[in-house]
Design a protein that fits this description.
Layout (H helix, E strand, L loop, with lengths): L1 H4 L23 H12 L2 E2 L11 H12 L15 H15 L9 E5 H13 L5 E6 L4 H8 L3 E6 L1 E2 L13 E2 L2 H6 L5 E7 L11 H13 L3 E5 L25 E6 H4 L7 E5 L2 H12 L7 H16 L7 H23 L2 E3 L6 E5 L17 H13 L1 E2 L1 E2 L15 E5 L4 H19 L2
Parallel strand pairs: 1-13, 3-4, 3-7, 7-8, 8-9
Antiparallel strand pairs: 2-10, 5-6, 9-10, 11-12, 12-15, 14-15
Helix pairs in contact: 2-13, 3-11, 4-11, 5-6, 5-10, 12-14
Bound molecules: 4'-deoxy-4'-aminopyridoxal-5'-phosphate.
Protein name: Kynurenine--oxoglutarate transaminase 1
Subunit structure: Homodimer.
Cofactor: pyridoxal 5'-phosphate
Length: 437
């Protein structure tokens, strides 16, 4: 008993607490810009979420699910996915992929696509394994690979200048086949594909996917295919699921998100689809981390998919209506940015676009007082001084390539007309002040 009493009263802990696996993964500019946007901005086109509500049928499904007074909807459900949801996902995507999916073994429900990605890297990547990532990329891929002890290997999409003074399109950004092939090695475990791509809006063509697939098969590696923007493709473009290509089902995990699919990013329902051999380690990671996802949200997403299955391809389908509405918003923002000289790159998909702010930089009283990239300093200045939030392109590049493009910011156009108009007003006013001293 007495030795306890002899402890000093203030026995502060002094040993290092952070596990080594977190080294170099702690910076997150999203937190910073989102905070700045909340403090200064009147118009937030920064983070990727709609400021309009999810469709009525989904909200009504939520209300109905609540009013049915099924007590089980408030309790734990099956760890790997609420039965009605895995069943409908298997049915829906089985149809799209042209194969029978088993709801119990080919589908895993996750806390948004984000947790699906986390499960993939934790489940597949060993210390020293290389993972090929196509730049520009959704930034968490790099951090999650590193946290798993893996080594990210980057391959850039390279822009080709557009013809005759036309605006650039995301399709002008392409992989160099020889350069891509050179990134594969003995140590490569997986490649991450994101089509449609955030932040560029590129929708990979069949030829591009064939090339990626051929290399994956040749080197016998996994493909982690992040398809959260699968319904957001424009101008009649087709979203091709790489898992449907020859030899790819067996080595691909396809990731989706109800947040993006039904404009309800706060519900955090996502999923992975793939062969049982790949999903087994994902289930293990899932059961050792979150174990299961919110039952009610899964139930409602299941009802949303039930409706979409019935209306598949019809004009009333949300998966037909949403891209139609977003294409109009895209065109509107493209026109608005082009009119003030902030040159947009026209995206073929997603609800993001990149714009070149070179013509506006003379207004920006820059002080390079840190190693923070120029576009990031510009974006922060713009929030504080113009009340307009956008994300710098450099956050979608690895450390070595952060300064490759200095003058691009990413806008999200999944916004109400009033929000886009307010952004336009800010840009117009800025342009006038700029040109008339
Ligand atoms: N992948 C990409 C490419 C994304 O842009 C996002 C969200 N910004 C996610 C995954 C995460 O999706 P969720 O909200 O379903 O977790």
């Amino acid at each position: 008993q007495t030795h306890f009493l002899s402890l000093p009263l203030q026995a502060k802990m002094s040993r290092p607490v952070q596990a080594r696996r977190l080294e170099g993964t702690d910076k997150n500019i999203w937190v910073e810009i989102t905070n700045l946007a909340a403090t200064y901005s009147t118009v937030n086109l920064g983070q990727g979420f709609p400021d309009f509500p999810p469709p009525d049928f989904l909200k009504e499904a939520f209300m109905r699910a609540l009013s049915e007074e099924n007590p089980m909807l408030h309790q734990y459900t099956r760890a790997f996915g609420h039965l009605p949801l895995v069943k409908i996902l298997a049915q829906f995507f089985g149809k799209l992929l042209g194969r029978d999916l088993d709801p119990m073994t080919n589908v895993l429900v996750t806390v948004g696509a984000y947790q699906a990605l986390f499960c993939c890297f934790q489940a597949f990547v060993d210390e020293g394994d290389e993972v090929i990532i196509i730049e520009p990329f959704f930034d968490c891929y790099e951090l999650m690979v590193k946290m798993a002890g893996g080594v990210p290997v980057f391959i850039p999409l390279r822009p080709k200048p557009p013809k005759d003074g036309k605006l650039m399109s995301s399709a002008d950004w392409q992989l160099d086949p020889a350069e891509l092939a050179s990134k594969f090695s003995e140590r490569t475990k997986a490649l991450v594909l994101n089509s449609p791509n955030n932040p560029l809006g590129k929708v990979f063509s069949r030829a591009e996917l064939d090339l990626i697939a051929a290399l994956c098969v040749k080197h016998d590696i996994l493909c982690i295919s992040d398809e959260v923007y699968e319904w957001l493709v424009y101008d009649g473009k087709e979203h091709i699921r790489i898992a449907s290509l020859q030899g790819m089902w067996d080595r691909t995990v396809t990731i989706g998100s109800a947040g993006k699919t039904f404009s309800a990013t706060g519900w955090k329902v996502g999923w992975t689809l793939g062969p049982n051999r790949l999903l087994q380690p994902l289930r293990t990671t899932h059961q050792n981390s979150v174990y299961l996802c919110a039952t009610l949200a899964q139930e409602v997403v299941a009802r949303g998919f039930q409706r979409e299955l019935e209306l598949y391809g019809k004009p009333e389908s949300y998966f037909v209506q949403l891209p139609k509405e977003l294409q109009q918003k895209r065109d509107w923002l493209v026109q608005s940015l082009d009119a003030v000289g902030m040159k947009p790159i026209i995206p073929e998909g997603t609800y993001f676009l990149l714009a070149d702010f070179s013509e506006f930089k003379s207004d920006f009283p820059d002080v390079a007082d840190s190693d923070e990239p120029y576009d990031s300093r510009f974006a922060k200045w713009m929030v504080k001084n113009k009340g307009l939030a956008a994300m710098p392109l450099s956050i979608f590049y690895c450390e070595a390539h952060k300064n490759n493009y200095k003058h691009f910011i990413r806008f999200c156009f999944a916004k109400e007309e009033a929000t886009l108009k307010a952004a336009n007003d800010i840009l117009q006013k800025w342009k006038q002040e700029k040109t008339s001293p």
